[in-house]
Amino acid sequence: MEKIKYPVYDYIKFIWKKKLLLIGFTILCMVIGAGFSYTKETVYTSTALVFTGNGNNEKLSKPGLIKDTYKDALPEDISSSLDVKITEPYQITLSLSGSDKVSVESNTKKVAEQYTSDLTERFNEQYDVQENIKDALEGVVKNTKEAISQYNKLIQETSDEAKLLHYNEVLINKMEAFDKYQADLEEVEYDLVLAEDPELMNVTTTQTSNNLLRNTILAGAFGFQLMLVLLVLWKYIINARRALSERK
């Protein structure tokens, strides 16, 4: 009667006999993974949050253009790490990364302050223009209001049909113009009330973790799987040699 074979059980039994080798190699890989974690260089990332204000500035509101504008003023070893992101409406972050914490922090603050200063300069220019428009509209509204009052007085004082017709026509035009100027003035005043200056909100610095636990677990899992494959291959070679010897 032919002997019944259980190859899977045979392999499991072999692996169990070599369990100390499997466990030992896994532990060795975990130790190597943990050691590797401590050899990694610490990288510091400093991030500045800037409120851009609600002025219009195309050049200083697009990340790509901002990077091109300010990266040349940074040291060569960290200039390429400059990262600009729009986090929320009217909020932009500028980040730098490197191994020197002092350099990263100081240069991040420097570029953020310069960026905020440029935004403020542009904002003030636009605010001054709005103020001038407001002053001009106030003058126009005042003059138009006085003209309406004068034509109302002229209409009351004259009885000439031709003049009455002319005065009424001019008065209607003046009143329509007054409504338009008044609406424009209110719009400009509303924009000025809502105007908000750019501001550097804060600068924060973080450092990369050495991921000790993560690297240890991953290295252990890799070592366990590798040794398991090697043990299976080892057992396969033993079985293959045994089968060849039996045929002879």
Description:
By secondary structure, the chain is of the alpha+beta class. The protein folds into two domains: 66 residues; 169 residues, no CATH class. Helices cover 69% and strands 12% of the residues. It has seven helices and four strands; from the N terminus they run H-H-E-H-H-E-E-H-H-E-H. It has a four-stranded antiparallel beta sheet with strand order 2-3-1-4. Helix 2 packs antiparallel against helix 7 and helix 5 packs antiparallel against helix 6. The two termini are 21 Å apart. The relative contact order is 0.18.
Task: Describe the structure concisely.
This protein is of the alpha+beta class and 248 residues long. The protein is built from seven helices and four strands. A four-stranded antiparallel sheet has the order 2-3-1-4.
For this entry, give a set of tags:
single chain, 248 residues, alpha+beta, 2 domains, four-stranded antiparallel β-sheet, elongated
Number of strands: 4
| Portion in strands | 5-15%
Spatial ordering of strands, largest sheet: 2-3-1-4
Model regions low in confidence, pLDDT < 50 over at least 5 residues = none
Q: Compute the gyration radius: what is it? A: 40 Å
> How many helical elements?
7
**Tally of individual domains:** 2
Biggest sheet features = 4 strands, antiparallel
Helical content, roughly? 55-70%
